[in-house]
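Run log, item B.
One chain of 290 residues. Sequence copied directly from the ordering sheet:
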Amino acid sequence: MTAHANASSVATAKSIAGPFENGRNLMRTQVPGVYFRMEQRDGRFYQTGIQGGRSQTEPFDLVIGSGRRGQSYLYWKKGLLFQLPVSYHAGSRRWINSPGYQDGAVHFGRGIPPECLDCHASRFRLERTATGLRYGEDYSLGIQCAKCHGEAERHEQIVRPSGLDLCARCHSGLHDEEPLEPDVHGNQVGMLKASRCFQRSGSMTCSTCHDVHRMERDPGILSARCALCHQPASCPTAAAGGDSSSTRCVECHMPTMPSKLIEVQAYRTHRIAVYKTAQGHAGPRPSPRR
């Protein structure tokens, strides 16, 4: 299963990464008397916000994200989807405020528009009924083959997309996000376009470095793709470190950087460049193959 297939799923004991056992199922805020409790009962999972003598409880219905870095959660109400105010942060192994939520406020009213679901699921459509808008029941979770290749009755009929446009639909950020410059979260295409490698290549796309049909997390495997265009021997760091250094290209030239949009997370930048090392020295730039 690929990372794309894990973009969304039904909330179950297997798909929810956060803990529910006593002692780990609370998220306390900085406001006295305001906290959230995660509970499991009767085979379902619930999130309760407590503020003074008032409380509100809603179910975990859908999971957004695989849990590798974190997850957010949605619940159904009258045919529409809303975000739960507490998410899970894998790095710290704890419950945290969902991105964009104010700490110390019990707020369950953030609706999920189709634009969000378009990048986290294969199909969601709004339909108008006698009582108003609602999502159709024919939704499809996760990013499945047809999302990128189109519907086809036979395998040989599938469309084989090329270029950046398809990936950019979900990996170029939101149009109204701040700051306007590309961010390491959500706008990998914008970061890539700012790279000299991309600007000089003329043919570089996401699939030049990524096999989207496989789960690839090893920096060594991804670094090996750099050798398609660069001579590792021309890099002083790789030459000095031998084979071990030649497999760490992305660690120097695509380092993990904090996001300006999701403050608790850091992501590998897709702006391929020379960055300052921990010692304050600029790393080497491999020479392109001729």
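Observations after the first pass:
- The longest helix spans residues 219-226.
- The radius of gyration is 22 Å.
Flagged for discussion on Thursday.
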